[in-house]
């Protein structure tokens, strides 16, 4: 299957995935759409969540991203019908050239989303609404911040195609994410949730830009992942352990020790990691370019195994550093103390430093990396240091071995 065909097919698959996951986690599309209507018609004071935990955050991120993509498709079709299809820009041509060489996709685009959210939501809705109070002031700031932010996207188009109507999809995007910012309290937490949502939307949409084709090796990879999941889950159930044992880490804001031993924790993380990897395969996210870093290493298997252990040791040191640094920054600067979110920020910081080429591969690394790093940091906090070192080195080492197996499939195909 060709790259362009894979790209066209992957977007609806990803859309169905995030939409269904949000629904299964409890996202009430009807209730949220009604709240958005209230928000847009002057009732912003009625918007807000009763509580918060990571599960609620994940649910809203996926649910709002689903609405964003659907609205972008619908408004894009209407705008194209009125103004005609926009011509490819010089920016997009250069963008494609950079895409095939860029190795810091996650970092650059997460940081870009953060900067945009600080400007459009953080300053206008988070700070200025404390200076200019009242309903009228709120909506003036909402329209002003969102209007400036969306209008700046007009420069994504060639000069002859530039028209205010072209950025209507961006304006609608801004309204939806402004609702999210309001729902999560207009503060530091809201900024983080909106940044993650913004980044997730961008990466899903840009994941249509593929750098590899779909072939038999992708199916072989799926079968390997399925085998790992079945074997890991079977061993866990034989030991009387269910994956739901780790749910307190995403439903409670303070991370507490779980009644899981070293082997149980290793198996649980592995099953979760490769379940997400399987989802990434089904969603047709690039794999080869994600594995490209191994091609730079010697063909000697022993050398690669040693490198796996080295990466595992480095990951331990990185977890120590990232967690304590981010904990200090958000605690000292923002007076923010929700432990689960601090851990999530550390996990994202670790993950976005992973080098990948292209958006599709970058999104795969993000989907699989953030949950695993989050769980490893929770292990670091709640279990003994020796237990943590054993669990972390084993999980990272096995991930490296898995990557090498996939790379072997590629070379043989």
Please tell me about this protein's structure.
The chain has 16 helices and no strands. It has 413 residues and is an all-alpha fold. It has two domains: 3-206, no CATH class; 216-412, no CATH class. It starts with a helix and ends with a helix. Helix content is 73%, strand content 0%. It has helices spanning 3-24, 29-40, 54-83, 90-99, 105-131, 135-151, 168-183, 188-206, 216-238, 248-251, 262-282, 288-291, 301-332, 339-351, 359-382, 385-412.
Name the helix and strand elements from N-terminus to C-terminus, one letter apiece.
HHHHHHHHHHHHHHHH
Count of distinct strands: 0
Task: Count structural domains.
Answer: 2
For the CA atoms, what is the radius of gyration? 22 Å
Q: Report the oligomer.
A: single chain
Low-confidence stretches: none
Q: Choose one word for the global shape.
A: globular
Termini separation: 15 Å
Q: What proportion of the residues is helical, as a percent range?
A: over 70%
Q: How many helices in DSSP terms?
A: 16
Percent strand equals: under 5%
Structural class by sheet pairing and helices: mainly alpha
On the 0 to 100 scale, the average pLDDT is 84
**Main sheet attributes: strand count, strand direction, barrel closure:** none
